[in-house]
Amino acid sequence: MTLTDPAPATRTADRVTDRTSARAFVDTHVVPYADVYDRAGRVPEDLLQRVAEAGLWAPFLPPGSGGAGMDLVTLGEVHEEVGRGCSSLRSLLTVHTMVSWTVQRWGTPAQRERWTTLLGSGQVLGAFCLSEPGAGSDTSGITTTAAESGGGWVLNGVKTWTTGGQRADLFLVFARTAASIGAFLVPREAPGVRVRPIHDMLGTRASMLAEISFDDVVLGPDALLGPSGFTAGMVLTGTLDLGRYSVAAGSLGILQACLEASSGYAARRRVGGSALRELPLIQAKLSDMVTDARAARLLVAEAGRLKDAGESATLMATWVAKYFASTAAVRHAAEAVQIHGANGCSPDYPVARLYRDAKVMEIIEGSNEIQRITIAGQAEREKTT
Amino acid sequence: MSTTAKDQILTFVRERYPQAEIDASQDIFALGFVNSLFAMELVMFVEKTFGITIPNEELRIDNFRTADTMASLVARLSADLAVA
């Protein structure tokens, strides 16, 4: 199979407006090719273009800004469907969502005017630069600096594990200023920006990871997104929250893909004269997948509903949803491989990719250890209320 | 308006940190309880409860140090909303 989707180029892509249309899009344009993308280590340009034609890049933006005003519950459902098909593509959507939302929420009118329509249409793809070689989500470890100079800024440092970094046009970069931390919008073509592709990761291998170096990158005053200091904390927390929500939905998508692959395989595969699905131990695995998928779906939907309502409780609800969905995805991806036996370890079935992709979900957008500490803190407060 | 806002804000903070004795003039950041997660929750709570959007230029830590300062912010932004 080639990397190129053979669907007629003249076909007019249907706009994705809900779970049903997202599922149809993913089943047509993503599922048949996800393993090819995984092996190639990239998502092809024609799929990125189809995603744009379907209005998938940032549908939550207002209609006048390249979006469709999609609510976040529906966005979660769409990201679940994309995650069911290909975690690498969902990862690209996640970081683009983070950048687009951040510009819309925290940008000045001029920044929104310059970027949102381009981001909403997918003409400009965004990537999120927080992690560094010596620091993950820990902002106190950030060493990238942004020094005020001539009314603007000069950026120096290295960011790594940047999802979509090989392809992105606009980087949202967190850097240390004289006062605290600032969030900066940095175009890829800015002199001094260098992109080094990172290959052969364990999972989400087609998400086009990169290390991004900033060497005396001169930026204008309009590169700063919102005031630095207190607001930068808001930007980071809000942006990571939305990313976490997308990863929770994507983890659920992996789990659903495991369920569908395992259910189909167990129905077809025969052992000792009967279908694999007749074996009680296989039934136990499938029943747990069904149950956890439903539970994860409820948690993701609840986090989305709270976001749509503007309720502050969405932050903790999102932590819980991501923790549950990602751990469930890892657990059930392992069982999906087990159900498939040696076939599950081969490149001929999707479950090996799902297994590798699932593990990544426990690490990104806040490791699960950090999540458990945060959730445990909530438990303490609830106990004493 | 501001008295009601102050009470509602205090109730929210106290619910989140029941172990602390917090009054309207205490600097909740100085108490050491506030992390970035709670700061974001606080901003969302104020926006949702009082039907306002806090512009970037008002997202200064000094506006969020105490229930008093937050209530003043709410009153100021609500007045702007009424005028608009």
TrEMBL record, chain A:
Cofactor: FAD
Keyword Phosphoprotein: no
Domain of life: Bacteria
Pfam family, one: Acyl-CoA_dh_N
Acyl-CoA oxidase/dehydrogenase middle domain mapped to chain residues: 127-217
Sequence ranges assigned to domain Acyl-CoA dehydrogenase/oxidase N-terminal in this UniProt record: 19-122
InterPro entries assigned: Acyl-CoA_DH_CS, Acyl-CoA_Oxase/DH_mid-dom, Acyl-CoA_Oxase/DH_mid-dom_sf, AcylCo_DH-like_C, AcylCo_DH/oxidase_C, AcylCoA_DH/ox_N, AcylCoA_DH/ox_N_sf, AcylCoA_DH/oxidase_NM_dom_sf
Domain Acyl-CoA dehydrogenase/oxidase C-terminal, first and last residues per copy: 235-376
Record keywords, A-Z: FAD, Flavoprotein, Oxidoreductase
Gene Ontology molecular-function annotations: acyl-CoA dehydrogenase activity; flavin adenine dinucleotide binding
Family the entry assigns: Belongs to the acyl-CoA dehydrogenase family.
Descriptive protein name: Acyl-CoA dehydrogenase
TrEMBL record, chain B:
Transmembrane segments: none
Domain Carrier: 1-78
InterPro entries in the cross-refs: ACP-like_sf, PP-bd_ACP
SUPFAM superfamilies per the UniProt record, alphabetical: ACP-like
Pfam families: PP-binding
This protein's name: Carrier domain-containing protein
UniProt organism field: Nonomuraea glycinis
